[in-house]
């Protein structure tokens, strides 16, 4: 009999011999599957790898383009503003009493002096009647005292009474006059309190939510409603201190700076107004200066507490080279971080990377200080798939415009070449020799002179004879 160690050592080779074919099949299947997955990844990477440049004419990128133009650009200072009412009044009762009625609807537009609420006037009507009665009594006493005073003065002239008695009567008249004055003041107070039972709007505007219901007892500290003035409306915003000098120069010169208010997404112009005033100091914690702009708000588009995007118009730059803002990109085309555009070559519909220096931005347009010329065509959309020299597919309308512009440019170049040839033919051998020895600036002056003397041509047949010895004309 075999021991346990012999049985285990002989069992493994026996198992391999019996299942060698099955093992080989499993290994082959696993290896083939791994190779197939690897091969599929390679093919997928090759298919998805972008191919750019002129050596890959089949990879044409569809793009949108824009044309560089000459135009005016508006210098605007952007800011975030808060719509603030010029007047906000919390209407309170100035007397005590029961609130009889509320005469407004929440959110209603009311004029100045509109009756908002009514306090029970009966106690104040009674107080007014009592004050008037007291005034009438004291006025009667004053009249009687003055009559006695007149009689005492007549008796004193006849030496019929003592002088002390008339002095006493004068004091009585003065006392009654004081009582009448006090009664008159009491009447005015009673009339004022009676008027206070009619709670009116102190300003024209929109009333808010009602803060108390009819039937409640009100006191001088009880709020009825809040009235907010809506016309005109102001917007408070802050600008960086770097713009303060330009703004103050404009204001000191008496200029009116327009202010535009846009919606939160900066897509819709809400209102147009003008700068009203500035704060008296710069906020040192933020480095900004607060400004206030006024808007007539005729359409009530501005709402108190609303946040808007504000654009303060500082100046208008004339005859600037401008392009669509979407064409500007950031990168390092020449190893230096800068702005650049993809310039469309009109001859073969390829693009070239062109570094540019940008200036003031005005919405969807930006000033190009250097790098482009008017009528250049730049890529506005689709540039993320481009490289220098890539072929692009232009919109049909743009392609037709480019073809027309190219034909016009070729015709213009041909005309200039023909004009130059005609000009050179009109020169005598001596003039030609002198012309070739001129500097570029002298050549331009000489050509302009010849055109003027030739009425648009390059001189009379045979050429225009210059000064003796040939050469350009004096001056």
Provide a concise account of the structure shown.
By secondary structure, this protein is α+β, with helices and mostly antiparallel strands.
Helix and strand layout, with pairings?
Blueprint: H1 4-48, E1 61-62, E2 64-67, E3 69-85, E4 88-92, E5 97-102, E6 109-110, E7 115-119, H2 122-157, H3 163-196, E8 198-200, E9 205-207, E10 217-218, E11 223-228, E12 233-240, H4 244-252, E13 258-262, E14 269-278, E15 288-295, E16 307-324, E17 329-331, E18 338-345, E19 350-362, E20 365-370, E21 377-381, E22 392-393, H5 396-425, H6 429-436, H7 440-453
Parallel strand pairs: 1-22
Antiparallel strand pairs: 2-21, 3-12, 3-16, 4-11, 5-7, 5-10, 6-9, 7-8, 9-11, 12-15, 13-14, 13-16, 14-15, 16-20, 17-18, 18-19, 19-20
Coarse structural class:
alpha+beta
Rg, rounded, reads: 48 Å
Q: Tell me the β content.
A: 25-35%
**Head-to-tail CA distance between termini:** 131 Å
Number of DSSP strand runs: 22
Task: Give the CATH topology of the largest domain.
Answer: Elongation Factor Tu (Ef-tu), domain 3
Physical arrangement of strands within the biggest beta sheet = 3-12-15-14-13-16
CATH superfamily of the largest domain: Efflux pump adaptor protein, beta barrel domain
Largest sheet: 6 strands, antiparallel, barrel
The CATH architecture of the largest domain can be named as Beta Barrel
CATH class of the largest domain: Mainly Beta
Mean pLDDT: 81
Count helical runs: 7
Helical proportion, percent range? 25-40%
């Amino acid at each position: 009999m075999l021991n346990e160690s012999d049985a285990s050592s002989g069992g493994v080779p026996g198992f391999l011999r019996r299942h060698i074919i099955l093992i080989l099949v499993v290994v082959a299947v696993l290896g083939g599957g791994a190779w197939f997955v690897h091969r599929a990844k390679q093919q997928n990477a090759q298919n998805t790898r972008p191919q750019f440049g002129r050596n890959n004419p089949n990879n044409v990128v569809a793009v949108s383009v824009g044309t560089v133009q000459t135009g005016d650009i508006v210098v605007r200072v952007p800011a975030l503003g808060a719509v603030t009412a010029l007047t906000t009044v919390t209407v309170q009762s100035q007397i005590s009493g029961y609130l009889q009625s509320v005469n407004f609807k929440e959110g209603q537009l009311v004029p100045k002096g509109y009756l908002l609420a009514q306090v029970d006037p009966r106690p104040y009507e009674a107080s007014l009647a009592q004050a008037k009665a007291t005034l009438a009594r004291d006025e009667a006493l004053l009249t009687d005292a003055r009559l006695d005073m007149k009689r005492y003065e007549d008796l004193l002239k006849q030496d019929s009474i003592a002088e002390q008695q008339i002095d006493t009567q004068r004091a009585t008249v003065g006392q009654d006059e004081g009582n009448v004055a006090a009664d008159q003041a009491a009447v005015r107070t009673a009339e004022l309190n009676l008027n206070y039972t009619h709670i009116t709007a102190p300003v024209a505007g929109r009333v808010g939510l009602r803060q108390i219901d009819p039937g409640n007892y009100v006191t001088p500290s009880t709020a009825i409603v809040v009235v907010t003035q809506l016309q005109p409306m102001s917007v408070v915003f802050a600008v960086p201190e770097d713009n303060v000098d330009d703004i103050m120069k404009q204001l000191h010169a008496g200029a009116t700076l327009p202010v535009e208010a846009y919606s939160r997404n900066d897509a819709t112009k809400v209102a147009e107004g003008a700068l009203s005033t500035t704060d008296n100091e710069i906020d040192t914690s933020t480095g900004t200066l607060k400004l206030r702009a006024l808007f007539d708000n005729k359409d009530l588009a501005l709402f108190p507490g609303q946040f808007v995007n504000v654009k303060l118009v500082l100046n208008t730059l004339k005859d600037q080279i401008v392009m669509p803002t979407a064409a500007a990109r950031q990168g390092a085309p020449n190893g230096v971080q800068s702005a650049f555009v993809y310039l469309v070559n009109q001859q073969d519909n390829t693009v070239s990377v062109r570094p540019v220096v940008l200036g003031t931005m005005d919405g969807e347009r930006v000033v190009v200080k250097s790098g482009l010329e008017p009528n250049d065509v730049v890529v506005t959309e689709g540039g993320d798939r481009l490289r220098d020299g890539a072929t692009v597919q232009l919109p049909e309308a743009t392609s037709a415009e480019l073809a027309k512009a190219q034909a016009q440019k070729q015709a213009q170049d041909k005309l200039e070449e023909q004009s130059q040839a005609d000009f050179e033919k009109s020169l005598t051998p001596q003039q030609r020799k002198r012309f070739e020895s001129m500097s570029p600036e002298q050549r331009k002056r000489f050509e302009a002179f010849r055109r003027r003397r030739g009425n648009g041509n390059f001189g009379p047949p045979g050429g225009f004879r210059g000064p003796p010895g040939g050469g350009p004309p004096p001056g």
